[in-house]
Amino acid sequence: MRIDEPSIIRAVLEGYALRRDGIHGVAHWARVLENGLRLAEETGADVAVVRLFALLHDSRRFDDGYDPDHGPRAADFARTLRGRAFELPDPAFELLHRACAGHTHERTHPDPTIQTCWDADRLDLGRVGVTPRPSRLCTEAARRPETIRWAHRRASRWLVPDLVKDGWAIDLHDRA
Fold first, then answer.
1. For residue 8, with 0-12 CB atoms within 10 Å meaning exposed, 13-18 middle and 19 or more buried, which class applies?
2. What is the pTM assigned to this prediction?
3. Theoretical Cys-Cys bridge with 120: which of 21, 26, 35, 65, CB 3.0 to 4.6 Å?
4. Helices and strands per DSSP (H, E), number in the chain
């Protein structure tokens, strides 16, 4: 398994239609990644899939509002990066593809990796003024009040994780 995060991020940003500092932008991806890694410690999710989901799930949005096909477009985009920017075995790639394609419209899934991906994204709803409801989360780890409080506090304050600047070398003020 190989994940070349810098190559993935370059590819995403080359075709990214929205603002890097917007509600579905880079800081959101980083918070989703941190949420997912935290949840994966308990859920046993495939961390490679969680990482890739965080980077790719909103990568092909055309609108910050209604864009019902952005998940399937992200899943298809992931297919174009496979073998170039990352390598995953077929079963793990199928989880990534399903997680991206269904993350907006589907409520839950039996696989703990997909559940973790979707919860990681839903835990970041504070950025749009919504507190995640436990009944809309898939995993016990995400439904815990302390997990929701932690994630909501970060999202509602638009926390930009250090990973954005220090790990990914992205300047959110650069409009390029």
1. buried
2. 0.97
3. 35
4. 9, 2
